[in-house]
Amino acid sequence: MVVKSNGLALASRRVLSDVVTDDLRDAILSHDLEPGIRIAEDGLAIQLGVSRGPVREALMRLEREGLVTIERHKGARVASWTETDIEEIYSMRSAMEILAIEWACKNATAADLDAMEEILTRFSKLTDKQRTRKKISQFDLEFHSALFASAHHDRLNRTWEVLRSQIHALLVYTWSSDIKINKAYLPAWGPDHRKIVEVIRTKQTKKAKTLINSHIEGGLARISSHFKEGPKDISSK
Amino acid sequence: MVVKSNGLALASRRVLSDVVTDDLRDAILSHDLEPGIRIAEDGLAIQLGVSRGPVREALMRLEREGLVTIERHKGARVASWTETDIEEIYSMRSAMEILAIEWACKNATAADLDAMEEILTRFSKLTDKQRTRKKISQFDLEFHSALFASAHHDRLNRTWEVLRSQIHALLVYTWSSDIKINKAYLPAWGPDHRKIVEVIRTKQTKKAKTLINSHIEGGLARISSHFKEGPKDISSK
DNA sequence: ATACTGTTGTTTGTTAACAACAATCCTTTG
DNA sequence: CAAAGGATTGTTGTTAACAAACAACAGTAT
User: Fold this and answer.
1) Burial class, B127, CB count within 10 angstroms (exposed 0-12 / middle 13-18 / buried 19+)
2) CB 3.0-4.6 Å disulfide test: which of B36, B44, B144, B218 passes with B80?
3) What would the CATH number be for the domain defined by A16-78?
4) Nucleotides of D under 7 A from a protein CB
5) CB contact under 8 A, A155 and B66
6) In CATH, what number does A83-228 get?
7) B168-183 pLDDT tens trace
8) Among A82, A80, A38, CA closest to A59
């Protein structure tokens, strides 16, 4: 099959395996493909109208992101989540964010700080109705991505990309369970993050580290409480 | 080309892309392929007597390990190292090892502790002549791998695998420069690591964290001093 | 009924050929 | 002579067909 520009021209040289990767990631994160479900290379290839090559590559990349698991000669499955995964992911996240804010205090440029502020500004303009769980999570991930970017630490950012996908997947999972969100958390979102920008700007490294640590701990507590009331493992087999 | 069992039967189901990955990794870590050098898929494929598929897969895996860099439509190069890379790698390592020892204090089994001890015992039996820089580094990586394993934290271990490869590559690079090793470090290797096992056994988490931190800092200082006297970047283009 | 074995079907692993892209060199033109 | 442009060459991206591994099942012997 020839690459067809479906409607809009592809701006950058996006290669087929990129498209498949993004499509598949979206499908997983939007919960179109449920955790535990089997993904056959050929099936997906036919469905997307491409050959198995790019699909194979996409699956490998998503395995690295932790969104799918691959077993030799047995194929790929959408990753499923247990409480252990939450502990692992959040302990990694905590360590990574501390490192990130440390480097951000040293390396953040004015543009980096502006980028973070801009996200907060956009959030502040949302009406209460617009502040859905999903929306908040999106802003949250976006903000923290900006934080990691401001650290200017390539390897750290690559690790964050992986974590980000997994955290996203976890959040999607908690959305699907209809436990009501902790209302006390909503109004604090803006101020909490604004404080973080502030300590980075003033380069209070020590304070920054403790601040981000408790920030992440709070996130863990929230997601963890949601999770414990749901099933332990969403994969059937 | 058909898979030929070269001499001995392959114990586990090793697939062709695994073989290529390992071969290529060895070639890079043994400095057969120098940093910055170009790797063409076809060339390597012909050289190894396989098709481009497995080679492509191997390159992708090694990119994730940080041993090669891939640019779209431009192919792969063996990664080259600068002082920035050292800072990045060691700051990551520090954060990861602290997390590892924290989890090890909680999760290490008797078998885990034995495994670490066993490595130290093997090292103690080496004669002074055998304690080359290369040998010491191998033992060091092995010990720290055992430490990470004892944390029983899958994601942490996957991150360590990546770091391990990169540290290995860095060490190889410092070996190739003929700066003489810090003699004071040699006799301390055994006792230093034994202390680490001890704090894990006695679950002194707090003490363990500070201990491992200074341990890694020491490693950074050593490698860093070696590096600064050599060229900043080993890649020519 | 149960354990074993051969068979069949499905899926992944591998290959070789084709298409698209990037870099280089050479030609053409100002 | 320099710069723009176009063919050329080498490399990566993609495809489709083939080979090998696994899983499920049926049939047979005990």
Assistant:
1) exposed
2) B36
3) 1.10.10.10
4) 10-17, 19-23
5) yes
6) 1.20.120.530
7) 999 988 776 655 656 6
8) A38
